[in-house]
Amino acid sequence: MQSSRSRYRNDDTPYHGALLKGTAEQTFEQVARVGEVGPPIMLQDAPLSGVELTIPLLTKMAREIKMLNLLKIESVGTAAKLDALLAAARDHIDGPFDGEEGITLLAVLEAGATDTMTSATMPDQIKPVVTSFLAGDKAAATAAYARVLPAINHENRQCGFRAAKEAMVEGHLIKSAFCQHPIPRLGGPARAQLMALLQPLDPIVLSWGK
C-alpha cells in the first residue's frame, strides 16, 4: 500500500499462502515491474511470506532494478545475510535496514546496517543506539543498547505487536488496545512486566498524550 504522499514503496514479495508462491524469476519480475512505475522500493525480506529471498537473488535485484535501493532484512541470520549482500552489491544499496525489531541490533549495525525499523513502542530510546554507533562511539551504543534490551526482548518474545498498542493506551494516544480476532488483548503478567520495563526508560509513548 502506498499513499500519494509517500516517498518510498515498501514491497513484500508476492505470496498467497505457504505453498502458493512464485519462483525466483517471477519474484524478480514482479519487483522489476513495480520499479518501472517509478517510486523507490524498499524490499522487505520477510520469512512470514514463505518466499525465500536468497543472497544471489537479492544481489541481482539490487544490481539490476534501479528503483530497488532499500532492503529491510528480517530473516534468520540477519547480520550475516546483510554482510554478504553489502559485500556483493554495496554500491547499489542506499539503505540496508535491520528488520528484526532491534533484537539483534548491534550485530546488524556491525554488519553494515545504517538504520533499523522497530515497532512504535520506544523508537526514541532505540535511536541513540544507532546514532552513537554510526558516529563511531561503540561504547555509548553498547551502553544504550544494554539499557533497552530487556524491554526489546520482552516485547518481541512475550507481547508482539500488542506491546505498542498497550503502551499507546498507557500514554493516552489511543483509547483501546483491541486486537482483531482471534488475537486476544495483551493482559496479566505480560502487560505488567512490559510496563515495569518501559517506565524506567521513560519513552515518549507513555507521556505523549497526557
Topology:
Elements: E1 9-12, H1 24-37, E2 41-45, H2 55-64, E3 68-73, H3 78-89, E4 95-98, H4 105-111, E5 115-116, H5 123-134, H6 138-159, H7 162-170, H8 188-198
Parallel strand pairs: 1-2, 2-3, 3-4, 4-5
Helix pairs in contact: 1-2, 2-3, 3-4, 5-6, 6-8
Cα end-to-end separation: 32 Å
Could you give a short account of the major beta sheet? 5 strands, parallel
CATH topology of the largest domain: TIM Barrel
Percent of residues in beta strands: 5-15%
**SSE arrangement, N to C:** EHEHEHEHEHHHH
Q: Could you give me the name of the CATH homologous superfamily of the largest domain?
A: Aldolase class I
What's the gyration radius in Å?
18 Å
Query: What structural category characterises the helix and strand content?
Result: alpha/beta
Low-confidence stretches: 1-6
Average per-residue pLDDT, rounded, comes to: 90
Number of helices: 8
Helical content (DSSP H or I, runs of 4+): 40-55%
Q: What would CATH call the class of the largest domain? A: Alpha Beta
How many strands in all? 5
CATH architecture of the largest domain: Alpha-Beta Barrel
Strand order of the largest sheet: 1-2-3-4-5
Number of domains: 2
- What is the overall silhouette? globular
